[in-house]
Amino acid sequence: MAKTILFVCTGNTCRSPMAAVLANDYLKKWGFKGQAFSAGLGAVPNLPAAKQAQKIMAEWGLDLSKHRSRALNEELWQKADLVLTMTQAQKEYLQQLAVDKKVFLFKEYAQGENKDVGDPFGGSEEVYRACAQELAEGMPKIIKRFRGEDVVKIALGADHGGFRLKEIIKEWLAENNYEFEDLGTFSEEACDYPEIALKVASKVAAGECQRGIIVCGTGIGVSIMANKVRGIRAALCHDLFSAKASREHNQANLLTLGERVIGPGLALEIVAVWLKTPFAGGRHARRVAKIIDYENQRFDN
Predict the structure, then answer these.
(1) Fewer Cβ atoms within 10 Å of its own Cβ: the N or the C terminal residue of the chain?
(2) Arithmetic mean of pLDDT over the chain
(3) Catalytic residues
């Protein structure tokens, strides 16, 4: 189920609507099914966002023209999974109202600072711009933290033989709050699996994504190709035990699957186990280190 963030300020025409539109932009870009919305503790209903706020957001490709202010009410409060305020005073007020909500100061949640976000109301365009920049700087950290401290970005790919299963996995990742990047293919038109596997493996090897998932007809071809890339430990898994062991024992950073070998139900179970299982370390770390040492020697020579 998609989760929601509520941004709270005073009038709901400046800070909180800018925060909400920025948050929704990140949620969309990162493939996360969630929602951000805003309200004000002293808002006059149905006022548009400040013209300066609309202009600055428009410059960043975001639309605030349809925003209308609203006061915080019980319905909005119950809808929120996380509440972020612009000031310490707002946070303290909301904490007195109820104890069933996680209420944080914006900067506290973003970077551990007990500092208010400056109120631009009545200020110049530059004051609004400075406020927007404060919000923009903290937003990536807020979204990542909201989704879980252990969240990783996943590179996702498939050839034509794995396209349908890839789409099912993509939907599951979004529903379960994982950040991902879909590297294709984007239809069932025939394509070459080595090219897709190389795209995904390269993203993981470069550190742009921490894990990768590739689907083809059997999972074999993409596994062979991915393991040619330095730094990749791709595991072909068609059962839960292998998926778990590949993470615990082998620290696999890339999972391959075969659409023509397993059904979507089992595939999603495998993905879930593989993503949630940590590396066990210990004696397994010594063994993985030997794989890395040999790989480094081969590439360096």
Answers:
(1) C
(2) 91
(3) 216, 249
